[in-house]
Design brief:
single chain, alpha/beta, 161 residues, Rossmann fold, six-stranded parallel β-sheet
């Protein structure tokens, strides 16, 4: 089975909002670590902060769906982002995705699921019928070796081998 995202971009700031709006996208469900924030830092890059402000000014609804289980970290991220963060998502399971949709008041086909992991973020978005956007991870150089290997394997599913 291939996991083909609707779109592949370098990072979230390169997403064409007008094209998504024209395609009927009204909201975003973001992965947290390495998609919208660098892992474990609890800080937001200025360029991403600016892009999120534009996103919200354009009227898009946003929520973060993370597999991260550290409640304190996710609460800090929620304050930094000023966007609700649902942790313990267990992606690609769909239960928390459904909860996220309910919280922002949209249907699955009205949101774009954005993440850096094909077999969690993109797969859950596809299973729900959402537009899916795969981004390169924000921090690649300092990842553990096993994560780098997993990423290469996941990209093989995206590229078809």
């Amino acid at each position: 089975m291939l996991v083909k995202p609707s779109l592949i971009v370098e990072d979230i700031t390169t997403i064409d909002l007008s094209a998504l709006k024209a395609a009927g996208v009204k909201g975003f469900i973001f992965d947290l670590d390495n998609t919208i924030m660098a892992p474990r830092l609890g800080a937001l890059e200025a360029r991403i902060e600016s892009w999120l402000a534009i996103l919200q000014a354009e009227g898009f609804k946003c929520i973060v769906l993370s597999n991260n289980k550290k409640a304190e970290y996710c609460q800090l991220a929620e304050k930094v982002l000023n966007i609700p963060v649902l942790s313990h998502a267990a992606k690609p399971r769909r239960a928390k995705f459904r909860q996220a949709l309910q919280m922002i008041g949209l249907q699955a086909d009205e949101v774009a699921m954005v993440g850096d992991r094909p077999l969690t973020d993109i797969w859950v978005g596809q299973r729900m019928g959402s537009y899916t956007i795969l981004v390169d991870p924000l921090i690649k150089h300092s990842e553990k070796v096993y994560i780098k290997v997993l990423r290469r394997m996941e990209r093989m599913f995206v590229q078809g081998g």
